[in-house]
């Protein structure tokens, strides 16, 4: 039990850690990974049951039953869609896993890490991703799974101390993290070059800040910048995503410069919009571009001295060298499909090629919308007609009231808000969960109502709900209304619906959703 005290115990005879070691890199990377895991499980704690619980918008139990039927049984279905929730998918099981995940991620964030802890976090989060359906269908979910899997091999098997001298940081795993950083950045750059023409003529950022899924307050200010500045931004984006990733494989000075540019770029993206924990996680991965010699310079004098006095790391055991070698071989084989995809003119964005999603391909915003449309839900107790008084539901973060300031939520992820952004690009027939949301709001389901912001119909549901379709635009400097947005009605998205409507009841029953 006295081992943690050795972390700062004076040892005048111990030489400073070599610049090429990675024990400080491991420490920083794992703490950042713990932060991302914590927010990922926090999102689940507050949103998962209303989304995919027993009475959720897309119940996970019904989903697993359909997968099992298509695959010919639970055993085959597990290998197609690995998840611990094949053993049971009740609300109690989902809730228990969330609290365990929060406890484990907090432990990691506080500085303790070993193989069982990291393996449990990876297996748990994979289980939620694989039952989360469209609400967990984002590239950063698979990125967290791939990063979390690699992190398992950075840690000691037993004692979870922050700087274990008996378990040196494997350089091979650090290189695999650099390979991951390269694929994330380079894949994003290629998808843009092959995507919307505005990436090639350097005009995409004229629209992006306004039309991205969940803008933040700074997005409004970025949108006001002149076109020439957006052109410079876009050119810098191409440089960082297409040129800088190659620097992570270069000599030390070049690699450190590339790492700095990647981390700086991700900080800019965090400042300019709410992209969940994507950029926080990518920034953690990019820490692998550095070494202890670089990170040590950032420490205050006292911590630097304490770090230099850490007991020298022992040589890695033969078993550990074999395991890391096998891991590198596995990643090399599984990287074939992602690399082929990156080089293909038909490059797929955020694709996985193995059921455990160990090595994936990434990309973002290959296309950029030029106009923003929003679905606005409204309820009333009156009979629908010209005299009816409709009251609007607001969501926690997606644009609604034109006077409300855009929110700051990253690294937290408002999953329903994001799906409403995607739904605005299709019709209601392709978004059954949205019809189910209306049904549950009409029933007064507290879980569904809790996914929305406070406002009307908190104590009792309305008789009718409809959805209107609006075009939203940022206001400009000099606008005297005090509003952040202006909007124009574009039409109906969903006609007024009520619980008395037999078509709504039939729709819910046809999907097998519990009443």
Characterization of this structure:
By secondary structure, the protein is of the alpha+beta class. It folds into 2 domains: 12-361, no CATH class; 372-510, no CATH class. 50% of the residues lie in helices and 8% in strands. It has 21 helices and 6 strands. The strands form 2 sheets. It has a 4-stranded antiparallel sheet.
Outline:
The protein is of the alpha+beta class and 515 residues long.
Write the layout of secondary structure elements.
Elements: H1 23-52, H2 60-71, H3 74-80, H4 91-109, H5 115-129, H6 139-152, H7 171-193, H8 197-200, H9 205-211, H10 217-223, H11 227-243, H12 252-272, H13 278-286, H14 292-296, H15 301-308, H16 318-334, H17 336-343, E1 351-352, E2 360-361, E3 372-380, E4 391-392, H18 415-423, H19 432-443, H20 446-450, E5 464-474, E6 485-497, H21 502-510
**Largest sheet: number of strands, sense, barrel closure:** 4 strands, antiparallel
Q: What's the β-strand tally?
A: 6
Cα distance spanning the termini? 54 Å
Anisotropy-based shape: globular
Q: Sketch the topology as an H/E string, one letter per element.
A: HHHHHHHHHHHHHHHHHEEEEHHHEEH
* Weakly predicted, low-confidence segments: 1-15
Global Rg: 25 Å
The helix count comes to 21
Q: Regarding quaternary structure, how should these chains be classified?
A: single chain
Give the fraction of residues assigned to helices.
40-55%
* Structural class by SSE content: alpha+beta
The tally of domains stands at 2
Whole-number average pLDDT? 92
Give the strand line-up of the largest sheet: 4-3-5-6
Estimate the strand proportion: 5-15%
